[in-house]
Amino acid sequence: xNYPMLQNHLYIALFLAIASFVGCAGSDQEKAYPTSGVxxxxxxxxxxxxxxxxxxxxxxxxxxxxxxxRDDGTFVMTTYEDGDGSIPGEFRVLVMQSTSKEPEMVAxxxxxxxxxxxxxxxxxxxxxxIPFIYADPAKSPITVEVKAQDKNELTIDLxx
Length: 160
Prior knowledge:
The protein is mostly beta strands. Helices cover 12% and strands 32% of the residues. It has one helix and twelve strands; from the N terminus they run H-E-E-E-E-E-E-E-E-E-E-E-E. Strand 1 (35-41) and strand 2 form a beta hairpin.
């Protein structure tokens, strides 16, 4: 079993669970405001893509936002509907980086079942991988404030 690949999938599942279950939704749901930005690591856009989640720093009403980080480090947050943003407030930022991809299936000789071409394929060099502290909901040192305004453009700066 490939544990690094499994670990990536577990972290992404954790982010989606946090974004889905924190807070509440309903007819009196808090308004989400457009929220997007870029994640930088050591001054450059974070490589590999991944997931981002906002966890409220204090007790507040509403649902937490989550999003996908694209290969160029950009993201758009979602709370209720795709790309609608985040509710206002102060949040701890959780970032999980995708560092590998699934191997490809290749046809084998003589008509037998396809086989994996190799093990997982690393997509991010070790020196460009963010520290795991940024994925820890209790220890991530990054916080942001989302304001009740037409556009929240954020830059998330991560360091080694």
